[in-house]
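> call design_seq(struct)
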């Protein structure tokens, strides 16, 4: 009866019959709606009890399939109070709800079907968060935190353990944010804003401007060349840099008075929150740290 309920996608009835024995925050996906979203559910092939007819504890072995993958599971059942003292009753002691550990790099939420959950961690040292699922093949979809992140669903087969295509040896499912061209375009806009702000007098006296283009001896400044594109640096897809050239005129008090070109590198680095998710400003733009380097 229990396996037939799972094969029919009746998660609520199966949970009522056999308690998974975990807190409610781990039962988020033990619902009929989530099982209805599965691309494959449990197929029961065979159910056989052991030969210990006189024992109050028995083992029932079930042979099943999910998405064409066969597996067996041994259930422990114990004798319960008989109905009206005549009909035998048995209680299943272990649920077929399987823990799936989900972690995210730059991803804070995921969904299965229409149900969402946060991948919040108990501490920095904990890998991911565990949720229970009944057997089936599901699409785990990372929720993009903003328009600068692209997401790709992960196909997960839950048998009596977890089968995924991207197992990293730590979590069953690990999402990694993929940053799209919109982030680079926003970084370029942020870089040009600082370049232009520092390319006028007295704008070049701002604290964010390079010491090479500010100071009491600078009497005039203009932009000779500003970046029209940026490159990633340090193998980090969220850190960018580009070249800028200013024409700077210095007067009395300068070591070498006159007009000269000053070449600088403008660097743009995205900021992240404590969970590693890209931060955005109140107007929805990435929160960048923009600075100059030699």
């Amino acid at each position: 009866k229990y396996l037939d309920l799972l094969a029919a996608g009746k998660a609520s009835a199966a949970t009522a019959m056999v308690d998974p024995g975990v807190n409610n925050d781990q039962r988020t996906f033990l619902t009929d709606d989530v099982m209805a979203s599965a691309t494959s559910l449990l197929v029961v092939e065979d159910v056989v009890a052991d030969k210990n007819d006189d024992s109050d504890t028995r083992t029932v072995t079930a042979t099943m399939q999910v998405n064409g993958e066969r597996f067996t599971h041994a259930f422990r059942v114990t004798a319960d109070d008989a109905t009206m003292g005549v009909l035998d009753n048995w209680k299943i002691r272990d649920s077929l709800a399987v823990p799936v550990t989900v972690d995210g790099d730059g991803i804070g939420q995921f969904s299965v079907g229409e149900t969402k959950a946060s991948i919040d961690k108990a501490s920095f040292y904990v890998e991911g968060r565990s949720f229970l699922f009944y057997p089936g093949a599901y699409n785990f979809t990372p929720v993009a935190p903003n328009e600068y992140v692209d997401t790709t669903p992960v196909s997960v087969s839950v048998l009596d353990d977890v089968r995924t295509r991207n197992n990293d040896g730590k979590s069953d499912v690990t999402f990694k944010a993929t940053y799209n061209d919109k982030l680079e375009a926003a970084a370029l806009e942020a870089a040009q804003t600082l370049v232009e702000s520092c390319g006028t007098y007295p704008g070049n006296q701002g604290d964010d401007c390079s010491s090479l283009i500010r100071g009491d001896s600078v009497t005039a400044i203009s932009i000779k060349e500003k970046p029209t594109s940026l490159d990633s640096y340090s193998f980090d897809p969220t850190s960018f840099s580009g070249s800028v050239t200013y024409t700077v005129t210095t007067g009395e008090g300068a070591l070498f008075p006159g007009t000269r070109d000053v070449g600088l590198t403008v660097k743009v680095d995205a900021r992240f929150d404590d969970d590693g998710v890209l931060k955005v400003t109140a107007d929805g733009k990435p929160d960048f740290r923009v600075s100059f380097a030699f």
